[in-house]
Amino acid sequence: MRFRSFGRLAARLLVPLALLLGAAQVFAQDTDNLLPVTEAYKLSTDTNTPGVLKLHWTIAQDYYLYRGRMKFKGGDGITLGEATLPDGEKHHDEYLGDVETYHHNVDASIPYTVAPGTTRLTVSVQYQGCHEVEPKICYPPHTEKLDLPLPAGAAQAAPGAPTQTLGSALSQLGGKSAASPGMDAAPLPAEQAFRFEALARKPNELLLRWTMPRGYYLYRDQTVLHAKNIDGVKLNPQWPEGTSKDDPHFGKVTVYFDQLELPVTIDGDLAGRKQLDVEASFQGCQDGGLCYPLMTRAVSVDLSGGSVSTGQTTAGPAPEMPPATQNSLDVSLWYALLLALGGGLVLNLMPCVLPVLSIKAVGLIESGENPARRRVHALMYTAGVLASFIALGLIIISLKQAWGSQMQNPIVVAVLALIMLAVALSMSGVVQFGTSLGNTGSSLANRSGPIGDFFTGVLAVVVASPCTAPFMGTALAYAFAAPTVNALLVFVALGVGLALPFLAVGFVPAVARLLPRPGAWMETLKQVLAFPMYLAAVWLAWVLANQRGSDAVGLLLVAAVLLAMTLWWFERSRSRGVISRVFVAVLLVLAIAPVYMLAKLPAGTNRAATAEGVVAFTPAKLAELRKAGTPVFVDMTADWCITCKANEHTVLDTDAFRAQLKQTGTVYMKGDWTNEDPDITAFLQQYHTPGVPLYVVFPKSGGAGRQLPTVLTASLVEQALAEAAKSE
């Protein structure tokens, strides 16, 4: 152990020495053909965006820069946030170990804030690179002192705004603790922290929307709206209820977190205008972090409706709202309810719901010819479905979560796998649920009670949520943008659609007569239908392996064995005393313990780009490709998304699709949302999609991205790629 410790210490001491020796080679070797450091790495700057310093290095041929050797320091009155850098080329350096390097060019984006009275943007930029062919040398670390003019609006904080320094953030923001959500992360550039867009609901009514990442908020009373270049027109905002906050500078204020949707009425004569220029000035903060200077965004709104205008500035062409989601607010409530009803019906056919349907199929058959029994089955199952959809809708609306996002939690996945296993063991005859101590020999019709029907409906909704059926996309998009009451009605319609087949069996005698008569064959059928449940548990174990690795599967298997033991002893303890029942509880606790340990396992790596020719999604890489005029096919997927896997099998994992990518020069970019990813979540929110899958094709010309349906066909994708490759 002493020799190992000595070896690690020696390695730490030798790395700086090796860098110095490498730098010394500049003077020891023939340097006639080497470029000066500022010509090998030409640095240019862009300060046009208030609050963001953009740097660009043009790297000469046969030279490269180290990602990890870049350092940035602000001058007097300048506070820098964390620099945003793209991923570099990974390789092993004999002196530095595992490193990332850049060739040809690289861009960096650094958010900054300024103290009052500061008029210049002064920043020290340090970097280091090497010449990779003979003579192979490394330059010493080089520092450039930047002294740049500040853009308009960023020279100082807005009057009365909190001091723009991270060090005073706690006192500025009302005594937030160091564990506040926003304090743990570096502040985002203003364009990313506060995404602003607008559309016309009616010719005299607008909807303005601010979308913020978790931990950011917007001041209500620091927001000013006015119509540009038109006299006599006034914009009247209808402010929704916000969150009350004690602010040390502004006193008691109202703020908005996550997303603000602001209806605005237009008073005045528009004189037949079809377009209105709107300017919004606003201010917001990172909760527990810094506050941004006053921001001003201008948008042109199409008063005919259906067109979303954005006031944000991004690096490269910004993905615009696709036609499929631009009209989400213009869809009528009745049409959205009809689509939701159809989507709920189709959910009955999805593979993720079929195992649960097998439970209800047996239950309905067991009810025999008794109409009252069928109606109880149907009503209790429907009650469970509707209650679950309403609860799910409230969670999604309040937390702004996407459809199926609970499957990103490994504990949820593990619990569902164990539930599937327990139900399958019950259907196989290992254990009987719903029977009392002295009712072991009861008839099949008495084995399932109303409570069992209710929770079967709950389970159906839980396992259905990873699926995005046809017709559901538009309905859910409407629900996310509509008022709360309308949104909940959409979720109720989804529940009615899912439960409708069982309601028909329970209340329509003609449908009920189609069911076979009960008999001895039902026990065999029940045991046969247990196997889809076992397969569902296997599928969930596979999802868990992709989320947390093989250790998670090991813990799940331990929990499964303990659960099987618990159910076995539960069945044996029916006619025994209290001690046997206590032992059942002990075994159940032991079965739960491995599931609890899953939360402590690290998340698995992103597997989206493991296939050849697939690029992992990052906003920076997408912006880089679009800036270069490259068509891009963006695929947002997840391992627990059944529709995603079906599309991959039929369209995206085929030789024909790969040939089309090559023919059109399109880059296939894939985002893996199996685990939580803030960048993918922001992309989904930008397109107002209810969840994965999401497919967007960005054209070569740099125009708006085209969103494809959730269910793909080969001809549809071929047409989209061909259109994206055209130059306009």
Mean pLDDT: 75
C-alpha-based Rg, rounded = 30 Å
Q: N- to C-terminal separation?
A: 67 Å
* Strand ordering within the main sheet: 6-7-3-10-11
Structural class comes to: alpha+beta
Q: Please tally the helical runs, counting DSSP H or I stretches of 4 or more residues.
A: 21
Give the low-confidence spans.
1-7, 9-30, 155-184, 312-330, 434-447
Helix content: 40-55%
| Outline | globular
Q: Please describe the biggest sheet, giving its number of strands, its sense, and whether it closes into a barrel.
A: 5 strands, antiparallel
Number of strands: 29
What does it look like?
- With 728 residues, this protein is α+β, with helices and mostly antiparallel strands.
- Mean pLDDT is 75; it is low at 1-7, 9-30, 155-184, 312-330 and 434-447.
- It starts with a helix and ends with a helix.
- It has 21 helices and 29 strands.
- The chain has four domains: 7-149, Thiol:disulfide interchange protein DsbD, N-terminal domain (Immunoglobulin-like, Sandwich); 166-315, Thiol:disulfide interchange protein DsbD, N-terminal domain (Immunoglobulin-like), CATH 2.60.40; 333-531, no CATH class; 614-724, Glutaredoxin (3-Layer(aba) Sandwich), CATH 3.40.30.
- Helix content is 40%, strand content 22%.
- The strands form seven sheets. The chain has a five-stranded antiparallel beta sheet. A five-stranded antiparallel beta sheet has the order 17-20-14-13-24. Strands 25-27-26-28-29 form a five-stranded mixed beta sheet, sandwiched between helices.
